[in-house]
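Researcher: Going back to the complex we discussed earlier. I've cleaned up the inputs and rechecked each line, so this should be the final set. Can you rerun the prediction on the complete assembly and write out the structure?
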Amino acid sequence: MGSESALRLPILDFSSLNQLEPGTPEWVSKTVQVKKALEEYGCFEVVYDEFHTDIREKMFGAIAEMFNLPVETKSLNQLKEPFHGFKRYESIPLFESMGIDDPQIFEEVKAFSKLMWPNENDIFCNTIHLFAKLLAEFDEKSRRMVLESLGVDKYSNNHIKSTYYHLRLMKYKAPKVENVEIGLNPHTDKGIMTMVHANQIGGLEVQTKDGKWINVNISPNSFVCLIGDSFGAWTNGRLHIPVHRVMMTGQEVRYSLALLSIPRGGQLVKAPQELVDEDHHPLLFKPFDFEEFINSEHTTRRGLKTYCGV
Ligand SMILES: O=C(O)CCC(=O)C(=O)O
Ligand SMILES: [Fe+2]
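Model: Rerun complete. Updated structure for the full complex:
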């Protein structure tokens, strides 16, 4: 099915995120909007006024510079998680990605930059760290909102402590011919939440519950937030888990960055008892360990439902 250009994702204004505090009328009204968008679409566009043009341009310049390094250099970044580190896949030749764990910690970005550039790269470190911090702040606040809206905010602190952050930088080459080509295959994200920002090149599409594809808009002052499998499972199906893909057209390279919140291994992702009742909300997923799930997914790609659906 083709993209339905008339459809749009809900747009939520979070431009004064740093002033948004629990208990205020603004907080309560945003919480209602977040819940509605996530139940219906599992994602929304977030308007945000902290992405200043000069920093943004420097950042995308530094990302391009990183992807232009030799493959041998990029391959120096090996991470334990099977989808992290430097990645290319034969089936999607336009795509290339690079990952950094805990990028909200400056030293982690610096350690990565030392691998890529022996003389380091201050512009890369400062801009990537800033964007990761801004997106992490949104992740934390919006997760608190979701839990509050479901009446389980007593779990918020533990929920946030039980995850870590990962940053994925992505490059999508332009298709060779004047054509539409797949940039990233349809998938759901595996973790809790994903926040995606991109340069001015479009391509991200999200599938609605009834199977239509929506072109996602990402402006210089916005990003997209999507729910992953683990948050869908933890909320026992209260939030929709959106399938999404990237379709490339035109002649320009697309760069994007995604901050992911991911459950730590060694503990179970398990819906709280308040969200499970036999009559109206029977348990949808058996409790699972994220690390075991992702390792299985790497070889089988069968999805969470097959892995541990009830
Ligand atoms: O590049 C994008 O817009 C989307 C990336 C994505 O879906 C992912 O990293 O999981
Ligand atoms: Fe994704």
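Model: Worth noting: The domain at 11-268 is CATH 2.60.120.330 (Jelly Rolls).
Researcher: Good, that matches what I expected from the previous run.
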